[in-house]
Design a protein that fits this description.
- It is a single chain.
- This protein has one domain.
- 31% of the residues lie in helices and 28% in strands.
- The radius of gyration is 13 Å and the shape is globular.
Length: 65
């Protein structure tokens, strides 16, 4: 049985409607000096609903293949 490697998940980072960056959660956490778990929370639907109230919030969107 061969081991399968998982593809890294890619995220697009936005502040409001402005595109900031694209990369894996590890890459974005290191580049922007944030915790990986904090960035992953920014990609959750509950956070996105709350982000509608403030158009300048930092948000992450998971990229689909």
């Amino acid at each position: 049985m061969s081991k399968t490697q998982l593809k890294p998940k890619w995220y697009a980072m936005y502040r409001g409607d402005t595109f900031i960056d694209l990369g894996t959660a590890d890459y974005l956490a290191e580049k922007y000096h944030k915790k990986k778990q904090s960035l992953l929370y920014l990609s959750k639907p509950a956070y996105h609903r709350n982000a509608l109230k403030n158009s300048q919030r930092l948000t992450l969107y998971k990229m689909e293949d």
